[in-house]
Amino acid sequence: MIKVESLTKYYGDKLAVDNISFEIPQGQIVGFLGPNGAGKTTTMRILTGYLSASSGKVSICGYDVSENQIEIQKRIGYLPEMNPLYEEMTPVEYLEFTGCIRNFSHSEISKRIKEVVNICGLKDVLHQNIGELSRGYRQRVGFASAIFHNPSVLILDEPTSGLDPNQTREVRELIKELKKDKTVILSTHILSEVQAVCDRVLIINRGKIVADGTTSELEEMVKGKEKIYIEIKSEQDTSLIEENLKALPYCESVYLKEQKDNIKIFEIESSIDLREEIFNLAISSGWKLLDLHREKITLEEIFRQLTL
Q1: Where does a domain end: 187, 221, 255?
Q2: CA pair distance 54, 51, nearest whole angstrom
Q3: What is the value of pTM for the model shown?
């Protein structure tokens, strides 16, 4: 659906995007992440046809973006971060305008308005001025306009920026609903959004793709030391408990995080998952096991390690 081949972009003598390649099939939601200045925005603008590449090729639905702009614009819907809405219009007027500039007939416009209003949940605000709507509803109007022509590909730039938690949840659900028959690529700096919505993550840094995979696959890429936490109740001397834990194979360190009376919490660092060995040790040593869990690496930590 989206195919990027050896894409490179220079601004003068400054290299912004450095020979990147990736493909996104239909029905997939891909999060596009990167620190400021990494080449993320430039790549998104090339995908929409707003910028031309210095070299390489981008195709959407089989059409070359640089050679078939009319066909490309029929097949992509774009929602920029700063949603360009006419505040003096109502949502229904704005959607009528959207249909007109895309040369839809009057009957097609009426039919499509009903469909996108239902998809985006705009029925209750159709005849209010856009300028009077909440940011959440304004974003819904932007979505309705972006999908009005039923594009195969949606390109979303920071789609939940500035929304409150309830509005954010509603927009995320809308994105997941749209995935059923569309390809979605979204740029965001909100890493929890990627975990909540995306099937796959692309991370760009210094113009290069440094990671491409599901969140679990990215965890494997940066997998190193495991952190395991054990909470026990025992009258045994704390130093003796530490010694027993340190004696486990592959255990690299043991740290007493908290102690209150006979309840002790230890943080254990190791190169492998030692939960089974720790559980067996607790049983054989007569400790009352209150909690045993491994701390999962966060997307924030993955992002930090890959973009240093």
Answers
A1: 221
A2: 10
A3: 0.76
